[in-house]
Design brief:
By secondary structure, the chain is an alpha+beta fold. It contains 34 helices and 28 strands.
């Protein structure tokens, strides 16, 4: 393929090597419409198709977010209610989603399977270019918003999937920080608007405006088509041109984003919700932001990220330490938000008080001035550059999607799609600039020059949530009160039609339009996990191959099988402290410099495993996981050994500082991910494994940390005693990825004493019906199902069917929750959940009736092939080397062999309707329930209530 070749209406405009990506870039343009296309040709196993549109918002109604949801709700060739859902049900996709960004909307799909890839591409092309939204307004009412009134006397409420999603999103203080800062920094640009939509503005969007938005922006002349991997380019281009683009003519699309001039220094105050029982003190977030430049300033924007890593990447990074030492704040970060036309940078000072912000600003300016005058150490900067380059080269999966988003970071604005794909030269250039004053000058411009600066105070309020609810109710009541009787009747009729449509079932003829993958195209062999069992000095070492050239990984598992409940909690707390405290050989600052320079990543956790079918015993481990360049193996392993054997826990004030940060991060994670914590909570009564998991990483873990931080001396003593006992060779199982030996690390460990047993029994005393009041506009719920005696292969297919055939329709479509599903853990434990749910009580009632639904569903003798296929796909996701090795380790610890996995897949491929019916009968026994959300959402549920403190 060469420049000026014309293939199915596309002209090749450029070819170029992309060595950092192991690819060749081929750039094309559609002659008739002007649609742009990039193919990153490579030999990877995965194939990705994506179409993106430049969609700069003009208000806060979330029009492009609602369009992103809605176009996947039926189309010209695929006139089913939800093609997206049908694809989830029956494809081998490795990615299937759509995303709304501040200035673009992206629709990517990927698969390893050639037939599946073409099927996915067909459906997505039809969705974006010929959606059913033009003749079915119910899609807009369901996905966007509507007033729910089934009689003129009903109390009106707003419902809608995006409406509830954004209520949840805007409950996160971190989402508010970004949204409010962009509003301040970009007063003359589209970036001042919340592209996802603000809950108070979403109901301002009319169906007519929604349709016009699609007509204007979802046109080939505004499209950026991206392909990645070994695709059949002839077939793909023939499909894109012959069935879609040929229908359109080129036209101008008004999508220019005006350049935001530097603003005059601005101060903005906003409020966010905290729990009624929380103190308002130490809950203010103070931010200072500035637009850093243009997308074209690739080196400058990357250098700003280097500064963030170097100066605030740990508690002992110089800028963060200066601010923490004031005692006036809990955490500090200096970060860059890129991927937009004008990236911005922001320093965030967390958990302070409004009256302290002036003093903190003075300390900030003084510390920055000193850094600029004395210089930032070249070793510190080089270490940060190395860390960023490692992340760039060792990305997660699907990598084609990451490359797609990176390409758009320049391509969307008329730039070279390779600009942010080929970054090696940038890192080399930045290394050469350390010690030259370049970084110091950038820091001075960023944090000392007042022009272009916005200050944001995000202030806590116990009443903010109630005020928001009251305002919404008042606005809605005013609207309805102002309606004539016949206008109310129109709304009632609209609800009737929406209910009728939501309850309707696709006909056989409609479903037949969807492309399907034959079960014969699904390989019988399970995904391969190559594990070689070896020994070094009597210690078991699991070896895995590496597909990332030059990158190695190590995992260390130290048995905790003889630990008490207090010690398990101490192990969880220790995982938050290692790498952040000094060692016998290094100061905390020196240690951080070495960690940043030598390790691409390192993490610590408590992992828990149990053998198949065993519920009363489990095997917990303290785990250390690190990735690094294989050329640095000796130094990296020596560093890991130093961290885990020589860390000093003696400085009570520093430990408390770290635990307070953990406490706050834990709390914010619960507010944003209540469904995960609810599921962990309800499963805690099912097995020893789940009980330990709840203790070390669930809501119970948060409660233990929250209590311990008030007087940390006891916890510190427990950690010191525990670390000296468990970090030893006698308790170790090691795992390595790549052609390396962990011997230097193993020999650095003390011999120690092995636990008397490899397993432990463990139970937690927690309420069967738990309610946790959190400061959020929506709720989360979970229900456990204790009887997991049915065949795992059958249950995987059953849970896929229940997620997509039952819960999706009842909880998401009709109930308005943003997400829902049936979930099964690696050990086979079962729970259902809802996410950002306006009606958790109704959801729990629906969950309890899963067996009834299955009985009715199976009575029709449905074809369950699609659920078998997607269940297999869910079992075999794309994984990075690190994740693949961790998965393989887990299989080994659980005693699951390749032969057993192959047998289970074979049984899964042969699951019958009768087997589903029989397995579902066991769901008639329900277990614990948990709701995390608003207190009003828990009414009538008879819960033991707690409040997120």
């Amino acid at each position: 393929m060469k420049v000026n070749d014309i293939i199915h209406g596309f002209s090749v405009t450029r070819t170029a090597p992309a060595p950092d990506c192991g690819s060749e870039l081929i750039e094309m343009q559609h002659i008739k419409t002007g649609a742009r296309l990039v193919w990153l040709k490579n030999s990877g196993e995965n194939k990705l198709f994506s179409v993106a549109f430049k969609t700069p918002p003009t208000d806060d109604t979330g029009i492009f977010h609602i369009l992103e949801h809605s176009v996947l709700g039926g189309s010209e060739k695929y006139p089913v209610k939800e093609p997206f859902l049908e694809l989830m049900k029956g494809t081998m996709n490795t990615f299937l989603n759509a995303m709304t960004y501040p200035d673009k909307t992206v629709f990517p799909v990927s698969s390893r399977n050639d037939t599946d890839f073409m099927n996915l591409t067909r459906v997505y092309l039809d969705a974006v270019f010929a959606p059913a939204i033009y003749y079915n307004p119910n899609i807009f009412y369901q996905e966007g918003w509507h007033i729910e009134m089934r009689s003129s006397s009903d109390t009106p409420v707003y419902k809608g999937v995006v409406f509830n999603e954004m209520k949840g999103a805007m409950s996160s203080v971190y989402s508010r920080m970004e949204s409010d800062m962009m509003q301040a920094l970009y007063p003359d640009s589209c970036y001042r608007f919340e592209s996802g939509g603000l809950p108070e503005s979403i109901p301002d969007l009319s169906y007519e405006q929604f349709i016009q938005g699609h007509k204007t922006y979802y046109h080939p002349s505004n499209a950026y088509i991206y392909l990645d991997g070994p695709v059949d380019i002839d077939s793909v281009l023939e499909l894109i041109d012959g069935e879609y683009l040929c229908r359109f003519d080129k036209r101008e699309v008004e999508n220019d984003i005006p350049v935001q001039a530097p603003i005059a220094p601005t101060v903005k105050k906003s409020y966010y919700e905290i729990s009624p029982d929380e103190e308002e003190s130490n809950h203010t977030y103070y931010l200072i932001g500035k637009v850093l430049g243009s997308w074209q300033d690739r080196e400058k924007i990357t250098a700003a990220s280097v500064l963030g890593e170097a100066l605030t990447g740990s508690n002992d990074a110089p800028l963060k330490r200066a601010l923490l030492d004031t005692g006036l704040c809990l955490d500090v970060s200096l970060e860059v938000s890129d991927g937009i036309m004008q990236p911005f940078g922001c320093i965030a000072i967390n958990n302070t008080d409004e009256e302290n912000c002036g003093s903190l600003k003075e300390t900030l300016r003084s510390a920055v001035s000193e850094l600029c005058e004395k210089g930032i150490g070249s070793e510190l900067l080089t270490a940060a550059i190395n860390r960023l380059e490692f992340r760039y080269r060792a990305g997660g999966e699907p990598r084609g999607l990451t490359r797609n988003i990176n390409a758009l970071s320049a391509w969307l604005y008329g730039g070279d799609p390779l600009l942010y794909l080929e970054m090696g030269e940038v890192f080399d250039s930045l290394r050469a600039k350390t010690g030259s004053g370049y970084f110091e000058e950038l820091l001075r411009q960023w944090l000392l020059e007042a022009e272009g600066t916005a200050e944001l105070y995000l202030l806590p309020s116990r009443t903010y949530g109630d005020e928001q609810k009251a305002d919404e109710a008042k606005r809605l009541a005013a609207i309805v009160d102002g309606l004539a009787c016949e206008e109310k009747d129109v709304i009632v009729e609209q609800n009737r039609k929406l209910d009728e449509w939501q309850q309707s079932v696709d006909t056989a003829e409609q479903l037949a339009t969807m492309p399907h993958l034959a079960i014969s195209e699904v390989g019988e062999e399970p995904l391969s996990f190559d594990t070689e069992i070896t020994e070094i000095n009597g210690i078991t070492v699991l070896r895995h191959p590496s597909s990332d050239e030059g990158i190695a990984a190590v995992s260390l598992y130290f048995s905790l099988a003889d630990c008490t409940e207090e010690e398990l909690s101490a192990a969880a707390a220790m995982s938050e402290l290692l790498g952040e405290l000094p060692t016998a050989d290094s100061s905390a600052a020196e240690l951080q410099r070495r960690i940043t320079g030598l390790l691409g990543s390192i993490s610590y956790s408590v992992d828990v495993f149990s053998k198949q079918g065993v519920t009363d015993k489990c095997s917990p481990y303290f785990s250390v996981n690190a990735r690094f360049l294989d050329k640095n193996t000796h130094e990296a392993l020596a560093l890991i050994a130093e961290i885990i054997t020589k860390t000093s826990f003696d400085d009570k004030d520093t430990v408390k500082e770290l635990l307070l940060q953990t406490d706050e991060n834990y709390k914010q994670s619960i507010i944003a991910n209540g469904h995960t914590y609810s599921m962990t909570r309800v499963r805690a009564g099912l097995s020893a494994e789940s009980a330990v998991t709840e203790l070390v990483s669930g809501y119970e873990g948060y409660k233990r940390i929250h209590e311990a931080v008030k007087a940390p001396e006891k916890l510190i003593a427990a950690i010191k005693a525990l670390s000296s006992r468990i970090i030893c060779r006698a308790r170790l199982t090691a795992s390595v990825t790549g052609d390396i030996s962990p011997e230097v690390l193993i020999t650095a460990l003390p011999e120690g004493t092995a636990p008397a047993a490899k397993e432990m029994s463990f139970r937690l005393d927690i309420p069967e019906k738990q309610g946790v009041v959190i400061p959020a506009g929506v709720s989360y719920s979970a229900m456990a199902f204790p009887d997991n005696s049915a065949d795992t292969a059958v249950r995987k297919v059953l849970f896929r069917a229940l997620s997509l055939e039952y819960l999706w329709n009842e909880v998401r479509v009709k109930g308005g929750a943003y997400g829902t599903g049936a979930f099964m853990t690696a050990s086979g434990e079962q729970s259902f959940f809802s996410y950002r749910d306006p009606s958790p009580a109704a959801t729990l009632d629906i969950c309890a009736k899963a067996a009834d639904f299955t009985e009715q569903y199976c009575a029709g003798d449905p074809d369950i092939t699609q659920y078998i296929i997607s269940s297999v796909a869910k079992d075999e996701p794309l994984m990075s080397d690190g994740n693949k090795s961790r998965k393989a380790d887990g299989l080994w610890f659980r005693g699951i062999t390749d032969e057993e996995r192959a047998a289970e897949k074979k049984r899964m491929l042969g699951v019958t309707v009768q087997q589903l019916r029989e397995a579902a009968e066991k769901l008639r026994t329900t277990g614990n329930i948990c709701v995390m959300g608003t207190e009003s959402a828990m009414e009538g549920l008879d819960l033991v209530k707690d409040t997120l403190a």
